[in-house]
Specification:
The protein is mainly alpha-helical and 82 residues long. The protein has a domain of 27 residues. The chain contains two helices and two strands. A two-stranded antiparallel sheet has the order 1-2. It is elongated and about 110 Å long. It starts with a helix and ends in a 9-residue tail after the last helix.
Amino acid sequence: MISNELKCRGIRIWLAAMGLGAAVLGTGCQVDMAGQTLPSPWYLTDDVQYFPAGTEFLLSNEAAAMAEQAEEIKSEPQPAVP
């Protein structure tokens, strides 16, 4: 008959093997070789990491919005009362 100690050891080994297998299957194969990042098995479902070139002045939209707001805030002189 198998003792409880051997059963526990077998269960621990089985759980460790399953955890190791899950870790191996759960990680991709994406590697960096000679300056290139080679794709993982899930490269077709990855997010696109392309950012188109924009203006060199990174705050151009903010500057334009602030200028527009400054124009709107300017008050006009009131007409003279006769």
